[in-house]
Amino acid sequence: MDDDNAPGLPAGKQKHVRWSEGLGEAICRRLRDGELLRHICQERDMPSDVTVANWARERPDFARALAAARRMGWRPDGAHRGPAFSFCPEIADEVFERLCEGESLTRIAADPTLPSLSTFYYWRRKIPEFEAAVNAARRIQADRFCDLGWALCEGATPETAYLTDVKLKQLRWMAGTMAPKTYRTKLVEPAETDEPMRIIWRHFMVEEDPETGERRLAVYVPDPETGGIMREDDPDYRPPRGLHMPGGVSW
What we know:
three-stranded mixed sheet, single chain, 6 strands, 3 domains, Arc Repressor Mutant, subunit A
């Protein structure tokens, strides 16, 4: 795989370049200086970007060095700012398309041929057109997540019902976050009543008649007018109008 053919590249773009430690270090050094990997790979004696990606997959040490070089070369603080730090419309278009296909921005930034995640966020802050494109792609992603959720529902079985429910909750949250005007769950305000509802609670006690020894059930309620406590069967007790008692009884 050291001289990967980079299948699928247009004619004239396929390159047979063998891996070497010196070449890997040279690529990382130029990335740290702010150059874009795609621009580096367009030179005659350099490997294609697909080849570099293959090297990164096969060599963890090179992959870590490549990622570190990209982070240093794309910092927005002015250090190592090279020509690649400026906004690139071609890369922005690719980011938009890959977002629409369902990829996350974090996963896209993990592509060694693209800028780092911090650069994408820098573009979002500084380039209104890029921020608008990302937001539009998010809304398209929300539509895709809804379609995916319906497909999960159709394919659910008693054995997969729990896992499907977990996935649907995550998809529902993501769709509501990406397109809140369309998919976020809307809270419903409770209906307003003409006047406040007053509720009174009964306190039941079993009492024994001191003369006959007969046991009977006594019901004590608070008096809404005085705040005191009295028996519900007291002839002087009159519940206020509009009072709702538990159990559906009202006056």
